[in-house]
Specification:
Blueprint (H helix, E strand, L loop, with lengths): L10 H5 L4 H39 L33 H17 L9 H20 L4 H25 L7 H25 L4 H7 L2 H13 L14 H13 L19 H32 L12 H20 L10 H21 L5 H29 L5 H8 L1 H22 L2
InterPro entries: Battenin_disease_Cln3, Battenin_disease_Cln3_subgr, MFS_trans_sf
GO cellular component, one term: lysosomal membrane
Membrane topology: Multi-pass membrane protein
């Protein structure tokens, strides 16, 4: 992709009639959209486990437990024959059930999603999230709980590529708000679920209370955002009119008062143009995918095996702190775009690969002295992953041509999901190897 002359022509910056008030509303709206979009995805694994565990205990006639009832929090059904205190089935099994629907959506939706206006997309995502909460909370069989996880995954995948595409209609700082909100979802989702269940509420009631989250998504989008006139809210784009409005906005831009409008901006993207955009995105997608591959290889293949029995924290408690510190790191770095921008995305990828290699060796040779060392590494891992995410999409937005930007933002979202899915597959044999020692 070449950097177009219209790089800084963010429509809402010129169409924002209320100045800083609208800018604040848009920033807050995108932060809440990021939080709400990833919320169901974050809590669904632990919630589904709790529901499945109850179903398993109620079904005393079952001869063998389902692999899907393996404790996602680690430490409840360990393999006593192994030198490692680990579950017989990797937590990657549940990860794959949660990520594959998202990956499928991200692979195919960017080619056709432009035909569905944003208003309908947001309603669909909210309904999928609400359905996931209801299905899992009322589930009476394993397949119903897994269906709820799938609904959450589809809604989160479609929401991510849609809201990333939506940012092109607003000032570029909303990308930082979106990234920060998605980081906040990890901390808020896990914390809220834990607090409510610890307070004595059943998982079923807790999930039903969380129906407020899809409602908050609808309120954030329809009541908080101040959309520009060019946004295709309920009707498919009228490309000629859209192009003319953007051209007029660019003519009014101080930064581009001497630049010529970008030629050929009318009409939908042709398949040839989309392939050209995808080729240009590879330099962003590969580093992002590599970061997330290394990241989730650690989270799903190695974290459970990093157990230190000589401290006051149990195995389950150590694992929960690993996950919590990871989410804190992600939140901090996904909120950092307003302070620092990192152009060398490959450096972030290589540093994350070093993390994965270090922890793989630590699992094999057990040379790390205590969990506090692992805590620091996991926090650093989250910082690298969050920074890679927000900087990738910031520079895609910055360097894409005005005509290509919306498609580019949606298409590039496949990078993290592809890396996560491949990490889940790679974690299976590694986990099995160590548990069999």
């Amino acid at each position: 992709m070449e950097q177009a002359a219209s790089v800084n022509a963010d429509p809402v910056q010129r169409s924002d009639s209320n100045g800083s008030g609208s800018q604040w509303r848009n920033w807050t709206g995108f932060w809440l959209l990021g939080l709400c979009n990833n919320f169901a995805y974050v809590v669904m694994l632990s919630a589904a486990h709790d529901i499945l565990q109850k179903q398993e205990s109620a079904n005393a006639t079952s001869p063998t437990p389902s692999p899907l009832t393996v404790d996602f929090q680690a430490g409840n059904s360990s393999n006593s024959s192994s030198g490692y205190d680990c579950n017989p089935v990797s937590t990657a099994a549940v990860l794959l059930a949660d990520i594959l629907p998202t990956l499928i959506v991200k692979l195919f939706a960017p080619c056709v999603i432009h035909k569905l206006p944003y208003g309908y997309r947001v309603w669909f995502c909210a309904l999928m999230a609400a359905s996931s909460f209801l299905i899992v909370s009322f589930s009476s069989a394993v397949w119903m709980s897994i269906l709820g996880v799938i609904f959450a995954s589809i809604g989160a995948g479609l929401g991510e590529l849609s809201f990333l595409s939506l940012t092109v209609y607003f000032s570029r700082d909303v990308l930082g708000a979106w990234g920060s909100g998605t980081g906040g979802a990890g901390v808020a989702g896990a914390l809220l679920y834990s607090v409510l269940t610890q307070a004595g509420l059943s998982p079923q009631i807790t999930l039903q209370i969380m129906l407020v989250v899809p409602l908050a998504m609808l309120i954030s989008y329809f009541s908080l955002l101040v959309p520009p006139l060019t946004l295709p809210q309920w009707r498919e784009k009228q490309y000629a009119a859209l192009s003319e409005e953007r051209r007029q906005l660019m003519d009014d831009s101080e930064e581009e008062e001497h630049e010529e409008p970008t030629p050929g901006t009318s009409g939908p993207l042709t398949p040839t143009e989309k392939l050209h955009v995808i080729r240009g995105l590879l330099r962003f997608v590969f580093p992002l995918g590599l970061v997330y591959f290394a990241e989730y290889f650690i989270n799903q293949g190695l974290m459970e095996l990093l157990y230190f029995p000589g401290v006051f924290l149990s195995h389950a408690e150590q694992y929960r702190w690993y996950q919590t510190l990871y989410q804190v790191g992600v939140l901090v770095s996904r909120s950092s775009l307003c302070c620092i921008k990192i152009r060398k995305l490959w450096a972030l990828s290589l540093l994350q690969v070093v993390n994965a290699a270090l922890l793989l060796l630590a699992v094999r040779y057990q040379f790390l002295p205590n969990p506090w060392t692992v805590f620091a590494i996991i926090l650093y891992e989250g910082l690298l992953g969050g920074a890679a995410y927000v900087n990738t999409f910031y520079f895609i937005s910055l360097e894409s041509e005005d005509r290509h930007r919306e498609f580019a933002m949606a298409a590039a979202s496949v990078g993290d999901s592809l890396g996560i899915a491949l990490a889940g597959l790679a974690a299976f044999p590694v986990h099995r190897h160590f548990c069999s020692l």
